[in-house]
Amino acid sequence: MRRWLALLVAATTSLVLIALLVPMALLIRAVAENGAMSRATAAAESVAVAVGTPDLELTVQQVARPVTVFLPDGRTVGAAAPRSDAVRLAATGRSVTAATAGGREVLVSGQSPEGTAVIRVFVPDAELTRGVREAWAALLVLGLALVVLGIVLADRLALAVTRPVDGLARVSHRLAGGDLTARAEPGGPPEVRSVALALNHLAGRIDELLAAERESVADLSHRLRTPLTGLRLDAESLRDPEEAARVQARVDALERAVSAVITEARRRTTGRGSCDAAAVVRERVRFWSVLAEDQGREVALSLPSGPLPVAVGAEDLAACVDALLGNVFAHTPEGAAMSVRLAPGPSGALLAVEDTGPGFDPALLERGNSGGGSTGLGLDIARRTAESSGGRLTVSSPPGGGACVEVLLTTA
Predict the structure, then answer these.
(1) Share of the chain above pLDDT 90, in %
(2) Top EC class per UniProt (predicted)?
(3) Which of 10, 25, 348, 376 could join 370 in a cystine, given CB atoms 3.0 to 4.6 angstroms apart?
């Protein structure tokens, strides 16, 4: 925008200056020519007064320019010059100005006892244009200086407009990235200040709506868990053990689904955070290692030597790791080894969980269908965690068997 405004002002200023300076330059040249011709005419008239007197030659010599006097008897006094048609026309008693080689000639008639004499004063081109080039150069420098000044002023004016607009753009990007505390600083023209105030109002309204949604999620959690607790107690009171176990399993599945929905809703309302992925993965693997030891599973852990910040909140990443490790325990036989590897990736951090179980068919990995008889919410939670940070989830079956889940997380 600054560049376009500068170009617009430069073009407009140039047109105005051309319309002003070109006539002024032509006027300067005309004034210079008229001045030279006036001085030549005055010199010719001063000589015309001395025509017919003995002081004619002395008067001609005192004139500081080429002067020729054509006498009626055919003689000439002063500088040699041809008797042109203009001279013959001036001999009739007229004053004539004519162009000649190298300049102009001013012809004035003067009366003597012998007849009409013609006084010729030659004005060279150099005298006709004396000072014109210098004046034109001064006008050119003045025009360029005015154009540059106009561009500088336009750039300052454009900066006063574009700087608040750039600030609005930065604030909007921060809001889009989940930073709901971002606010614009009103400034610039009244229209830009109005936009900044409207953006701040919009950000405040979004914050209010998200707060209301968080309250609704908390209320939903309370309302759903109360009947689930009742269902669990009813299942435990059944006399038939098989029926009680079947109902209990359905209640557990329903509770996991409800917990996943509530967790996902909370994750959307709290926005995207950041954490040290190495610390979170280390802590969650330590938690699951107790169960792995009871089941005789070998757990291999590979972590970077230093912190590895990622654009995911600690709670979300912990839920992702729990979901992946929980799938390993739920869908592989006891004693199956597993490995957890966290390493810097090409654009963030790469979390890989592998096991030596029966594996799965990647074509079946869709929401609600993991291919293993479960709800599939574990991998869905991991996928959403990866996508919330700008990454992705990849599942594969290694050549040696088992399963491998890779979660790519972007850096904070």
Answers:
(1) 17
(2) transferase
(3) 376
What length does the chain have? 412
pTM above 0.70, yes or no: no
d(Cα 400, Cα 213) in Å, to the nearest integer? Answer: 47
How far is the C-alpha of 328 from the C-alpha of 106, rounded, in Å? 114
Domain ranges for the chain:
2-132, 190-253, 272-410
Q: Please, are residues 147 and 14 in contact by the beta-carbon 8 Å criterion?
A: yes
Rg value, the chain, Cα: 50
By CB neighbour count within 10 A (0-12 exposed, 13-18 middle, 19+ buried), where does 84 fall? middle
Picking from 342, 345, 357, the residue whose alpha carbon sits closest to that of residue 397 is: 357
Beta-carbon contacts of 266 under 8 Å, excluding residues fewer than 6 positions away, are: 214, 217
Residue with tokens 């008239």: 45
Q: How many CA atoms lie within 13 A of 26 on its CB side?
A: 5
Query: Which residues neighbour 239 within 8 Å (Cβ) at sequence distance 6 or greater?
Result: none
Residue type, 81: A
Please tell me the distance from the alpha carbon of residue 70 to that of residue 84, in angstroms, as a whole number. Answer: 11
Token reading at 50: 């001395």
2-132 and 272-410 have identical folds: no
CA distances from 375 to 16, 118, 264, 397 (A): 76, 122, 15, 20
Q: Is the dihedral of CA 318, 320, 324, 329 positive or negative?
A: positive
The H or E element containing residue 350 is: strand 348-355
Apex CA 309: angle with CA 349 and CA 257, to 5°? 75
The CATH fold of domain 272-410: Heat Shock Protein 90 (3.30.565)
Residue 94 DSSP one-character state: -
What CATH fold (topology level) applies to the domain 2-132?
Answer: Beta-Lactamase (3.30.450)
For residues 11-26, average pLDDT: 90
Give CA–CA dist 303/278, Å, rounded. Answer: 6
pLDDT beyond 60 at 181:
yes
